[in-house]
Nidogen 2 (Chrysemys picta bellii), 1336 residues
Amino acid sequence: MSCSSPVLMGLPALLLLRCLLLGSAAALPRRELLPYGAPRGDRLLQDGDDETSAVVPLGKPLLFYETRFSHLYVGTNGIISTQDFPRETQYVDDDFPTDFPAIAPFLSDIDTSGGRGKIYYREDQSTEVLGQAARLIRAGFPSAAATAFTPIHAFIATWENVGAYEEVSRNSEPSKKLNTFQAVLAYDDSDTYALFLYPDDGLQFFGTRPKESYNVQLELPARVGFSRGETDYLKREGPYYTVTSSEQSVKNLYQTSNSGIPGVWAFHIGSTSPLDNVMPAQVGEKPSVGHSRQPLESMLSSATLEQNVLEADYPEEDTDYAEPFYDENEEDDVEYPTELVPDVYTRLDLYSEPRRSGARLGSELESTLPYPASSRHPASPEMHGTKEGPSQAPPALEDEVESSQETGIRNPSSLETKDSLLELTTQGLPANTEQDNVQPYPDSGTVLSETDIFPVYPQGEVMHQGYPENSPPFNRGRQVVGVDEDGFTYNTASKETCEWNHHQCSQHAFCTDYATGFCCHCQSKFYGNGRHCLPEGAAHRLNGKVSGNLLVGQTPVRFSAVDLHAYIVGNDGRAYTAISHVPPPAARALMPLTPIGGLFGWLFALEKPGYENGFSVTGAKFTHSLDVTFYPGEERVHITQTADGLGPENYLSIKTHIQGQLPFIPENFTVHIAPYKELYHYSHSAVTSTAYRQYFLTFGSINQTFAYQLHQNITFHDCPPARHHRDVPAVQQLSVDRIFALYNDEERVLRYAITNQIGSREGDTANPCYDGTHACDTTARCQPGTGLDYTCECTAGYRGDGRDCVDVDECAESLSRCGHRSVCINSPGSYRCECPSGYQLAVDRPVCVPIPPPSNPCEDGSHTCASADRARCVHHGGGSFSCVCLAGYTGNGHNCSDVDECAEGRCHQAAACYNTPGSFSCRCKPGYQGDGFHCTPGKGSRAEGLMQCPTLSTPPLPEPPHRNRRSPPTQRPQTMCERWRQSLLEHYGGRPREDQYVPQCDALGNFNPLQCHGNSGYCWCVDESGREVQGTRSEPGVPPPCLPSLAPPTVQPSPRPDVTPPAAGTFLLYAQGQQIGYLPLNGTRLQKEMAKTLLSLHGSIVVGLDYDCREKMVYWTDVAGRTVNRASLEPGAEPETIINSGLMSPEGLTIDHFRRTMFWTDSGLDKIERARLDGSERRVLFDTDLVNPRAIAVDAIRGNLYWTDWNREAPKIETSTVDGANRRILVNKDIGLPNGLTFDPFSKLICWADAGTKKLECTLPDGTGRRVIQNNLNYPFSIVSYANHFYHTDWRRDGVIAVNKDNGFLTDEYLPEQRSHLYGITAVYPYCPGGKVHLV
């Protein structure tokens, strides 16, 4: 029946409404949203990433659950609340329930900065709106009670064309995927209903990437639902209701509904009548999955109810909403109001504090400045920042600024006069030397490279070009020609030449031979001293550490290795510096010392024609020494800043040390420094400057002037052979303006911002290229013309008109040098050549040549070891191997002969010995009884004892009790284990060989459940009588399942009541950003009270994690440093980097302690690699058919490797041998986002945790026997198996979750005090049988 059918005349009104709304479309048209916008009187939420509206007082309180609320707040991130929001990191990435009341039509990390969408909200009492809301509610709730519902108030919030937060690089445009949705709260005196409306094409992205993902690409689906929040002073969780739980369920929001109208969702959310939880509408399409579940922390709380209603698969329109894994460059096109400190500071805090909008940061600064807030904002809220001009905060911010000024400043009576201020600055403050832990944040991005640059060589000189490390090598023929001012000379004297030293030049430089030696010079479009070159016009980052030993007033303050980060906008000379976690007294006292950040301004200042900034002279290695004397107190401080080169991503590294005395600056005072000009004097290897500078302290009506004098010099190594060829002016003037210095007490960050240009001491009209007012793209060079004219030229690797530059795809345009069989991979501003599996780049040219197949004599049979029943072959990599005789044989491994244990007299003299190949047995002679090692006369019986050889591990039969024989009262009788052990030791002469079996007994003389064959690593389980438990014998590397923590496996595993907890010393290690945490186990329970930080790795982001039990070393991958590292668990051990090149995003890591090998995945390069544990013998196992490789695990005994690939189009789990042979897909059905993977050595199962399907599953190594352990996970990342439990890290809970293997129950969880995402996890055992193997 169509909606145009005449039969409609007889349909109920509500069904007619559905037909009218739907028409012939399958989704809600945008025009059917409730009216909104400025013409309707809506308020507009200010642009930003984490903004909150001013409080909205309601004309009449509304009921939410059982409570009436008279105020509402609207947040950027798709959420409404009855209270102000916490920081977004405390709720945006977390699942329901929230700690505060929440109404969430689309809870995700939304960012409206830069005009990307608008958020409207208002309260409405118009008949039109109330009637439309009532009709939609009645459509979903056709019951009599709901039909009678007539709202008297409505609150409407609309998110129009809003975008997801993303770190857009300067080389790419923001995503064009924008969402539109609406929330309507309609209520009367007794009931409240909520409507969520999702129009056709209104949802173009379905989730957002967490800010704390640390370069690991994870998208969290948006959360839709309701949460009551904490309900009482005990902070117990209230009820909550969730509509979505996966990406697919988010996609279904606009395609289906619970009201019969696609895209319209209705809920009863508050009532004076009993309402245990939110009640959804039940009309129309039924959800495919509707069930209740309870989170771990509230499993016993009947008040908690969660329902998932949108798991059905509906047709997808576009599933690829993920942004690129890595943005090779940070945003450079960040503009700021002339008087405001820029948002780039918060971008420096990429891995610590949440990013905030420029408007929010601006308001914070305005609260400290004496200028009127209104002078900084345009009159119209429609004005937004663009590349051509600074972004402006909307007028709505003025109220926030004024409020900040009123509430954020205290006015003590002691600060009412200028004299009192002087008194305070000399008296200081009470001593407080307490320090905080440093929370550093690494950087991302890279400096662009150019591989096809052909500089114009000066006439009469032969240049030797250097080549980028990431471009393919090729023939580098060299000529050595001497050059002097008079022409060519041929010099046979011994001197350094480019022939042997060109590698000392930057990859973006050429080498020139002079009469007295060689020098390096940067290529065209790059600048520097030749040994270090950076692209012109690009933005740069600096990292470093700051230490201080200061006396602030009369208070000593010390701090060590706190983080410094600087950001330089290269084409307009702006330099921003942030120093984190300086103690507050020192941080406030350091605010006037802008030369700390001023050094970076001089280094990268805009250059006027004929003048050079500091980096062009010094390069990346220099020492800056600064002496400062303050007046009137004559406090003196000395600052040393040392640069030690460029890092792998062209980041300059700086160490800063500050020592001396600083005048005290009281809290709440702001520091202002006027623009200044400073002369720098240049000699061959030093630059000096002397200046006198004033600064102003203001607070309310107080405005006091102070000053300091500074002497600074910068020393560096120049290149003597080229001195007479350089024409650097002896005196240059640095002009500095737009100077800001401030300290944020909440973030504990000291910041400087300055704009710099270098030129002559005479003033002239500034070209836009020099004062930063040009309109060139951030990937373009500004070329000054005459007067105020200029042109824009895209930097190397880009093309365009200079105002808009796009990356040149050298691969698609056949501009690369990649040769035979090689594959060209484009990257921003450059490209690289890669080879398919089985090939590698040739040493001298960019072509692929076959990789010689690795030789494994142990597998191909070319070894010279004895037969397999007498010896084993141990492969050491390449063609190296060794031979080891098996237990019961002796020899050098190549020749092994049976050990005749009977000839050695190992049995009792009244026993018969029977030698067998590799073993022996003892049996008491007739008339004796015993175990063969100890026989006693029997009374007429023919009792006999039997002891089987160690290969069967069968102990002697129990000895019957002797009633007439008593042991001395002070000594207990020897147990069977002790007698057996003593007998064997006597037969071995007291010193058994390393391969001979000796029973292991505990302190009470009982058999240890785990018995091993000497130190060979071959082990088995025994029962209480010492008899071997069949089927438990294992090979070196993995202990059998007979530890006290686990019963031997049965057909249907179940916990044994007599099993004792695992041995003390077992613990978990987990990665949490820049630290590795320690979480001990008591049995399988988490000892949360004893958890602590094991390693603090400032500047690192630890993802993959594993442990080598042989050498007691923990290994990890670092996606920030792009390295693989390790550290001993012994006290005082220092971390060690073992792989530091050729990595982009190393994630998963696993250790094969038997072969002394490690394996890792790189999801940036789409590779799986292996290397020895010291980093040697590195090679690529796989670099094809991989899209997003993540987790990796190894079965060391069987020599199998397993890994996951969460390719959204075709996720899979694969396996191969540890040498890369026999690659095949293990699982590719019914998986979504397999983040975590572990091999369980006890059950021999491969198990994975899937953040897409929410399941924990296991399968046999051949892919059969697949079963689900748990089907209701949150967002697992990494997983490890230990005893009868799995332990996984979870991104929703930000903790470690314990899951019972047998029943799938969530048994425990640990939530670190510092809440941020956890990554890799591994278990550390107190034993390592494989560690006893000695490879010869």
